[in-house]
Specification:
Strand content: 5-15%
Order of helices and strands: HHHHHEHEHEEEE
Helix content: 25-40%
Largest sheet: 2 strands, parallel
Radius of gyration: 18 Å
Number of strands: 6
Structural class: alpha+beta
Oligomer: single chain
Number of helices: 7
Length: about 170
């Protein structure tokens, strides 16, 4: 039986707060799976995946779920991979990226508010919307948080990663 803590194997945290000028080294892995391989991955998900990554917020609205269904239907997307691509594409085309938005109203689901009222948001909102829509379709997904690669500095022969490079994104299980 896998515990929740054991599933977070990709978490990397410093033992102390990093200050300007501090350096660290990270080794990462990149998937080389092709779109075709991901399309063929199937939906035989392990129980520990479905237990954690199909949970829905109780505040998710029916119109959010219906929007997810409409997006994949209009795209004729039948595999989890194609459905994820369709939802990502819809979000990029229909929600304006804006890092300075007001707080969601207290009485409204934040995903619903971004998708139907504000139609703007930043990475946290994009990821939350995509995750809830994918989960509503039975596709396991989770949010990841970290940093983009930053900017290459030839003088240091390294990438310089700053706070402005913080980012969240969606991970979909295949």
């Amino acid at each position: 039986d896998i515990t929740r803590a054991a599933m977070n194997v990709s978490v990397i945290r410093p033992t102390r707060v990093l200050k300007r000028g501090d350096t660290y080294t990270v080794t990462s892995l990149l998937s080389t799976a092709t779109g075709g391989q991901l399309r063929a991955a199937g939906t035989n998900y392990p129980q520990w995946i479905t237990q954690w990554y199909l949970q829905m917020s109780p505040s998710v609205t029916n119109r959010t779920i219906q929007l997810a269904q409409r997006i994949v239907s209009e795209a004729a997307a039948t595999t989890p991979y194609d459905r994820a691509v369709a939802i990502e594409s819809w979000l990029r085309a229909n929600i304006v990226y804006n890092e300075i938005i007001p707080q969601p109203p207290r009485n409204q689901d934040p995903v619903d508010w971004v998708l139907f009222d504000l139609r703007q948001g930043y990475c946290n909102y994009y990821a939350s919307a995509m995750i809830m829509m994918l989960r509503s379709l039975g596709i396991p997904a989770r949010m990841a948080a970290g940093f983009a690669q930053g900017d290459w500095d030839p003088a240091q022969n390294a990438f310089v990663v700053e706070e402005r490079d913080a980012h969240t994104w969606v991970e979909v299980y295949f």
